[in-house]
Structures are given as C-alpha cells and as structure tokens.
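Input chain follows. Return structure tokens only.
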Amino acid sequence: MNSSKNLFRALALALAFVIVQGSAFAGAGPKTIQKARKAVESAAPHDWKTFAEAASMCFEKSVNWDEALTWVKKSVDIKETSYNLEVLGDYYLKNNMPEQAIKYFIKSMDVARAQDIKADLSTQQAKISKAYELKSKV
C-alpha cells in the first residue's frame, strides 16, 4: 500500500512538472513573434540586419515560419551577407530541404571568405554536414 502511495505521488509530481514546464514555454512563441514584428516594423527600409535577426529569432523558436521567411528574403534582397544567407540556410535545414540549405550555407561561406580570407566558417561547415546527413535520410 505504501509503495502505491509513493508511486502515485511520484506520478503526480511528474505530471505537475510537465504542466509547469509546458506553460513556461507556451508563451515563448507569441512573445518571440511580437518582439520580431516590433523590430521589423521599426526597421529602416535598408536595414538588412534587423530583418535577418527577426527571422532568425523565429526560426530558433520554430514559430512564424512564413512571415520570417519573407523577412530573411527581404534582408537578402537588400544586401547579401554571410549572416542572412546562413539564416536562410537555417530555414531550409529546419524545413527538411537539405539541397537548398547547402546552397545557402555555401553562399554564406563564400561571402564571408570574400570579406575575410581567414573567416571562421566552422558554423556553416557543421550545418552543411547536418544537411548532408538529412539528405541521406530523405
């Protein structure tokens, strides 16, 4: 009987923990979207970085995919940079499109190298590796 009570308590605590953790993360999406939209709305028309950062924020939290894709594409249209090309690659990687992801990660590396021959490309290289792994599974 005592072990049944302990088991019940353990399950009740585990359930309570899951509920509390879930509610803590539930607001992250809307807050991220709100913050990203506010940044984009106040950005200057030529401010490629704000558009890319807002998109990256959404991609990291896996929210607002369509609007964030529009933002990062606008960022790239304004000015192709290593950063925004990598963010666009992140979108494709997270959406199981490894070919497109690889294309943008390589472009990101090319732009970085053009600016600095000694640029650290380890992040893009790791992402390309992930994309190839994904490609082999698809």
